[in-house]
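Researcher: Can you fold this with adenosine-5'-diphosphate in place?
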Amino acid sequence: MKPINALILISIGQAVFVSILLALYGAFVNPISLGYILLFGFGTAFVFFVTSYLFFKSFIENRIKSIYRIIHYSGKPNSRLRDDAVMEAKKATIKWASERQTEIEALKEDAKFRREFIGNLAHELKTPVFNIQGYLLTLLEGGLEDEKVNRKFLERAALSTEKMAEMIEDLDQIIQLEANSIHLKKESFDLVKLVDDTIALLEDKAQERAIDIHRQKMDGPMLVFADKNKIGQVLTNLISNAINYSNEKSKVEIQFYNLGNSVITEVIDHGIGISEQDRPRIFERFYRVDQSRNSAAGGTGLGLSICKHILEAHDETITVKSKLKSGSTFSFSLSKLEQ
Ligand code: ADP
């Protein structure tokens, strides 16, 4: 009930009550006499104003104001008698509580995310740090004078340092991509040429495993509009994964498909494949399918996560199709340059 209605009811009730009492005591014999009507009218008005001031202003309004202060209500609370201030305060409080609940859930999720992130980071850094520590201690404890091991151990320590540096660089990039603080430098470029440049960079790595990289023959250039360096990084990650997770002497293919205003690039390998339950998780940072199996490949577990972030920053997508022991196909879309 609105305060104004409550006040009118209280006032009339009080006036009727007082008038009846007076009538009973015989002060006014005729209940429709002028005196009776005046008494009724003045009684009602008096009770109305006293109750409205004392009851509404000092009791309800002040308390409602303090509720609004607690919930930091940004709007102006209603304090007119005609408004149902109590009901509005209740609604504002319920809304405030539900917003806080959502915030708490998001903070809990963030905290869980951070805990996992720090846990993964510590786990990933442990191996190279312990390796370096081991090699250096062995060298200090006499290995340095031993011609057979000194160079080998230093080279291994250098390799572990390189791996740590690579991981820190990847992490730095992921953090910037997640904070949306990377500014894309979009330009028009030939995707086919970028694929060829990337293949050339990875040629040695492919040769080590006798893997043949084959790019689909094209009639001309394929112009796209994107951040060339970042897309180069996506291609490097996908093609080097295809090499790493392929069987020796197999083939890696790169194909293009036109799809309206987009071009789909596919990196296809015939390697170990990814099981159905691992497929949705491989884009998570640090996720590796079967750690022991992949440790030889020596990745950071961040490559696909970086690819996904880069493509999402372009409003594009990356997907994977794969069959265990048969191979995988990673596809990503890019906007073609309007010609
Ligand atoms: P990594 O540095 O370990 O390669 P990525 O983020 O690039 O990290 O990939 C995550 C995991 O996904 C890899 O550890 C591997 O288990 C799996 N994976 C990625 N690409 C392929 C592929 N082409 N074939 C099979 N498994 C793959």
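Model: Folded with adenosine-5'-diphosphate in place. The longest strand covers residues 251-259.
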